[in-house]
Amino acid sequence: MANALQLENDDNQISDNEFHAISRLVYKNFGIVLGEEKRSLVVGRLHGCLSKRKISSFSQYLNLIKSDMTGEILSELVNQISTNFTSFYREASHFEYLADKALPEVMKMLSSRRSNDLRIWCAACSSGEEAYTIQMTVMKKLGLQYGTMNAGLLATDISAKVLDLAKAATYTAEQVATVHPDLKKSYFKVLPDGRHEVKPNVRDQILFRRFNLMNETFPFKTPFQIIFCRNVMIYFDEETRKKLIGKFYELLEPGGYLFIGHSETVPLDCTRFKAILPAVYRKPF
Ligand SMILES: C[S@@+](CC[C@H](N)C(=O)[O-])C[C@H]1O[C@@H](n2cnc3c(N)ncnc32)[C@H](O)[C@@H]1O
Question: Domain 93-282: which CATH class?
């Protein structure tokens, strides 16, 4: 125990070379920038990965990653390093805008071309709260009309660990505290232990998949009308953000919406998006 605590708090347990090698690896594979200030976090969060394998140095850990053809150790690394904080109705004004403005506009666009295909992507969905919030907002707003649509929500994240939680769709009473009581009643089932499980009519509408936003190619055949990518670009550098925003632009239908985190910025000089509200952008027609 003393050793574990010592390792978690002692930056000296990782050499400069080891730390830089891990930073480079994480940046190259996941776009996440690990500056010098993240040194303690890296040591603390990766400690368990080293002890699980009974190895005592980060150099050995890096060698293991290189020789692991399955990619599992790298995947475990990103599970540990990434920050997964999320909540239902986080940055709630976005969901008001979605219901009151964006969705009605999108429905108009679809009906003008006699389409029923509503496609939404929640990129970097973490443990599911954001995706379920979007889905509840859409279902509540569209009511019975939802059933007549060919609607679908794709929710992706790099971390298999959070995706498992998202698919389990079970949250504590504290986690669902920000969900309006009427919505809780409509869309959750209370389990005997007090936890809340998202009902199948909501869950079944969401496809959770592992996807790395750093991938060169985004394999989506039909455009989206709405993309949420919130609170992940803060971990990327400007070049990575620009590239990603450009990809979102290509993937959105003209008139489609991009929601990013309130503390994130889109470098406006590099984008053809029109800024609509703080952290809401629209692709011009
Ligand atoms: C802070 S959470 C944000 C969750 C949610 N979007 C929200 O705003 O509440 C950031 C998420 O981004 C994911 N992430 C980090 N790097 C990623 C990448 N390269 N590709 C896809 N997801 C990534 C993490 O696993 C984490 O779940």
Answer: alpha beta
